[in-house]
Design brief:
- There is one protein chain.
- The chain has about 350 residues and is α+β, with helices and mostly antiparallel strands.
- The protein has three domains: about 80 residues, Rossmann fold (3-Layer(aba) Sandwich), CATH 3.40.50.20; about 55 residues, Dna Ligase, domain 1; about 170 residues, D-amino Acid Aminotransferase, Chain A, domain 1 (2-Layer Sandwich).
- Helix content is about 25%, strand content about 30%.
- It is built from ten helices and 17 strands.
- The chain is globular, with a radius of gyration of 20 Å.
- The mean pLDDT is about 95.
- It binds adenosine-5'-diphosphate (ADP) and magnesium ion.
Length: about 350
């Protein structure tokens, strides 16, 4: 089947950048979102505002597209499964089910013989005590976390507040003394071929990505290991599209998988300017089966996220020809909200 219209669930900046890539590849986009103001509507051919459990609207969305993808992973799995019965959803819903759940995600990675941080599943306060070898650690909600939301640092058992009722499931992860964080962006096609970008070095502030750069300052061994592990993960998931593997490098130069994103990723924004094929174009090409695209590197680069009201200064700045500023056009400015980014191409 020739695919001419791509449905995208979610309307944030990732959706907006996917729509822009699709347009260049001659693919029409229909975006559905429960956020009335999501910026992707400014770039999509059509925008449907709806709650994700509105069966009528979902039906309308599905009827308008040939294939469906998503820009965020926290979509209720039963809704993805329902949609998938009508039109193919890529990456397939089963992948999303694993990755949106930290326990299933880490178990999947560990079962491949790939190291993560040491961790335990936590249902109640007593489980923290049973796993006190993981302290100092970070308690993370098992589902629905992003940008550090739902995370609590536990330095000792005293930090486990008596009034915590543990209404949700958590995992407790040992805190890693980080040397560096890197990520691998990989696009995998229906025929199993992949394009793997070089490792990207990431700096987080307050658990939010602050800046990313290539080349990452890492050894050849870690470079190869990061790429080969990402390739194995994508193959075992039978993944189609672009995904990201976030890694920690500890003080002993051990490479640990932090988490997987079953979608395009903030750390891959520099691929728009630094490569001939961006993570977004690769994703659209893979899910729409447009043929394998091999990216060529154009330049080294560094990307800076623009958060909250910092966007105001950027809006009035002038940029040099090696600087590329993206304003997501979000209607309201919120503290720590990702409002835009700047990529600087470097020698
Ligand atoms: P999110 O889903 O919010 O992206 P992550 O688990 O990736 O959550 O955590 C966000 C950031 O917090 C990481 O990129 C890292 O900088 C820091 N962090 C998270 N877990 C650990 C850990 N176990 N040890 C050290 N730093 C951590
Ligand atoms: Mg993360």
């Amino acid at each position: 089947m020739t695919i001419s219209t791509l449905g995208i669930i979610g309307s944030g900046q990732l959706g907006a950048l996917l729509c822009q890539a699709a347009k260049k590849l001659n693919i029409k986009t229909v975006v559905i979102s429960d956020d009335e103001n999501g910026p992707a509507q400014n770039y999509s051919d059509e925008f449907l505002y709806s709650q994700y459990d509105n069966k009528e609207k979902i039906k309308e969305f599905v009827s308008k597209v040939d294939i469906i993808t998503y820009e965020f992973e926290n979509i209720p799995i039963n809704i993805l499964n329902e949609i998938d019965k009508e039109k193919k959803v890529l990456p397939k819903p089963e992948i999303n089910k694993i990755i949106q759940n930290r326990k299933l995600e880490k178990t999947f990675v560990n079962d491949l013989g790939i190291k993560t941080t040491d961790w335990a599943f936590i249902k109640q306060a007593g489980d923290v005590e049973k796993n006190k070898n993981l302290l100092p650690g970070i308690l993370k909600s098992n589902t629905l976390g992003y940008d550090g939301h739902g995370q609590y640092v536990l330095n000792s058992l005293e930090d486990v507040k008596k009034n915590w009722c543990f209404t949700a499931d958590y995992i407790l992860e040992k805190k890693v003394n980080l040397k560096k964080e890197i990520s691998i962006i990989i696009t995998r096609y229906l025929n199993g071929e992949t394009y793997i970008y070089e490792p990207i070095e990431n700096i987080h502030k307050d658990q939010i990505l602050n800046n990313s750069k290539i080349p990452a300052e890492i050894s050849k061994e870690i470079y190869d290991e990061a790429q080969s592990k990402a390739k194995l993960i994508s193959a075992k998931l039978d993944y189609v599209g672009t995904m990201c593997v976030e890694y920690f490098i500890d003080q002993g130069d051990n490479l640990l998988v932090n988490e997987i994103a079953p979608r395009v990723h903030n750390s891959g924004h520099l691929t728009i300017n630094a490569f001939s094929v961006s993570q977004f174009s690769g994703h659209v090409a893979a899910v729409c089966n447009l043929g394998v695209k091999k990216a060529e590197k154009i330049s080294n680069a560094e990307m800076f996220n623009v958060l909250g009201k910092d966007i105001e200064a950027y809006r009035s700045k002038t940029f040099s020809k090696n600087e590329f500023f993206y304003d997501y056009g979000k209607k309201s400015i919120k503290d720590k909200r990702k409002m835009g980014h700047l990529t600087i191409l470097k020698k």
